[in-house]
Amino acid sequence: MTTFYWIFWAVAALAFIGVYLSWTAGRLDRLHTRIDAARAALDAQLLRRASVAQELATSGVFDPAASMVLYDAAHHARQAEEDGREVAESELSQALRAVFDDREQLVAVREAPGGQESARELLAAVRRVPMARRFHNDAVRAVRALRRHRKVRWFRLAGHAPFPLAFEMDDEPPAVLAEHG
Q: Which of 37, 119, 162, 172 has the greatest CB tally within 10 Å of its CB?
């Protein structure tokens, strides 16, 4: 009779461990899916910001030098390969700060035909990029924290999923755009 109880408790313990490991693997999978969704949202916001900047650069509102700086940075941000994307997006942020270094540029954009809508789109784009990046990096932190646990490493619960990397870039908006709404 005692052998039966030992076998019963050993099977119950193994079943519990199996369920726990399965739950942890599912959680890890959901977190990886969350990273993918957050990365897609970040990519969409970065593309939107670059598109609006490129549209403004070709609108004729700015002087030729400012237009060229903004267009070049936006073009590089849109065309950047994955390994150079953070640098290209940071350069676009710097170009936006350089072009919108004073209030007069924003006034000039708003006074141009269709400028109110362009200014509104640019304001929305420069505000959403930091939020999207923060959501992505929060998801990356959550996955990294779970993947550091011994049980995840020992039982290889992450499978062949690559170790997630945060997206680090300069996303500080121009002061003129940050204070307007």
A: 119
